[in-house]
Amino acid sequence: MPIGKWEGPVRLIRTQDQAREAAHALASESIIGFDTETRPAYRKGESHPPALLQLAGESEVYIFQLAQTGLPGPLRKILSDPEIIKAGVSLAYDLCELKKLTPFRPAGFVELASLARKAGIPHHGLRGLAASLLGFRLAKGAQTSNWARTELTPAQISYAATDAWAGRELYLHLNPWMFKPGAG
After folding, report:
1. Is residue 153 scored above 50 in pLDDT?
2. Range of the domain at 134
């Protein structure tokens, strides 16, 4: 199976002003792919805050470097807007960790694993869902890299953008299943 990846524009967001501009652009989206990346912990008891927040709109992916941007008000408004679907996997953990940075009330989030279960699809992770529904593999080479770096590598940027984009694409593929006779 071929490896699939996001081929469109990616905006790396490093300042609060850039974060506010990105949130303004994302406010017009109805469906957003959602993911976070956290620096891996290698010692028992060690943990790190989320380093990246990735949000994929229809034609652009935004990667927020959270150590520099935080979660400014306009971005929290997107994350709290029930009218904007934010689709991804393992959302509960990601949202819990994001709320530790700055409290907000998440709304409009759709757990893709739950949609897959309801549709009778055996794969519930991002990789398995992408393979079975989108017909490609997701590269995982950068998965355990240091996401807290100030300068991300092209491979890290591609990986992060692809995961958010895949979440949006999977929602678009899974959502019609929910309206088939007998589904639900």
Report:
1. yes
2. 10-179
